[in-house]
Structure formats: C-alpha cells, structure tokens
Give the backbone structure.
Amino acid sequence: MEEVNFLKEKIVNYIDYLNEVKSISPQKIIIDSNFFLNAIDDLKYDKKKSLRVQEELEQYRKKPILYWITFENNFCDKENLYNCYKETSINNSLQSFQKGYDIYREEGLKHRRVFSATKSKSKNDFLTNTLYVGKVESEIWGRLAVHSGWGSSPKTAGLQLHYWYDFETYGNLVFNYIVLNEKLKYFAEVLEKEMRDKLKPLIGKK
C-alpha cells in the first residue's frame, strides 16, 4: 500500500500542475521576412527581430514548452505551399552532409539539411490554419533556430523556413507557445499529440 499511496500523491501533484495549464495564455511571436535578417551585421538593433526573440526565449531555456506555428492570415493556397515544401525537401535530400555552422548558415541549401517529415494529404488537410505542432523539454530557442534554418547540426530535422517559405506569397507566421512547469516535462509529448490531433498541422509525419 505504501507504493500505491506514493503513486496517488504523485498523480495529485501532476493534476495540480496540469490544472495550471488551464490558466496560461499562449505567448506569440510573429515570424516575418525581417526575422531572418539578423545575420547581417550592419542592421540596426530594432531590425534584428530574431535577436530580440532569442533574448526573450532565453529565460525559458530550461523549461518544457508546447508550441504550434500558424498562419497569420488564413490564405487559401496551402496545397501550393505544401508542394513547395516537399519539393525543397526532396531536392535537398540529394545533397551530401558537411560539418560546420558557418557552412549551413552562409551557404544555404548547398549542403544537406534535414526537413521535418510529411505524409500524404487529402483536400480537407489543406483547410488547416496550422503549419506545425511541436514540443521541447528544454532549449526552445535552439528548436526555433532549426525551424528557421539556422541549426548547426546537419542531422536535426526542422522546417528550414529560411530556404523555401515565401512571406509575400504566404504571409507572416505566428509562433505560439506555452511554457510548462518543469514537472510536466514528460507530459509535453502527450499534450503535443492532443494539440496535433486538434489542429491537424500541414507538416509533420504524425
């Protein structure tokens, strides 16, 4: 019985942590064309949007976070966007791996990156307003950097937005995120699945 009582106590604690999520409002970061300009040294600080975002997210470096990326404007041609992503991903898969942060950041898709997986789509799948759903147990900025296309590892999958996403055609993106209690680190995957089932993101294999 001692073991059962221990588990009951832990379950009650987790329920309390999960109840905290009910009162949390998602935080939002707009990802626009300026978001990718921080690599240019002569830009004014107020133009270096991603640098400011990095500073904002750094305070949550050790926190588990649930996030989802949505379209700021619910445009119609998501099928075209999806096909553009697939074509870029397929073409890039033919490249060879090379090591080095500078190579990946400065030379674009000359060297292979890993794109997040996709699955076959029906017409109804293109009605979603969500591009991607994910979670991290820590290091949220590192994950957003990979999605942006700045990841230093050639083996870490992400959206690689910098190399295919056209803001003029598809509009801005919104990076929505909820910061979770550290105790919910192992629940983040469950919450991610529930959010994915609800939002039906355009990209992602699950």
Q: What stands out?
A: Confidence is low (pLDDT under 50) at residues 38-47. The two ends are 39 Å apart (CA to CA). The beta strands are 27-31, 65-71, 114-115, 130-136, 157-158, 173-179.
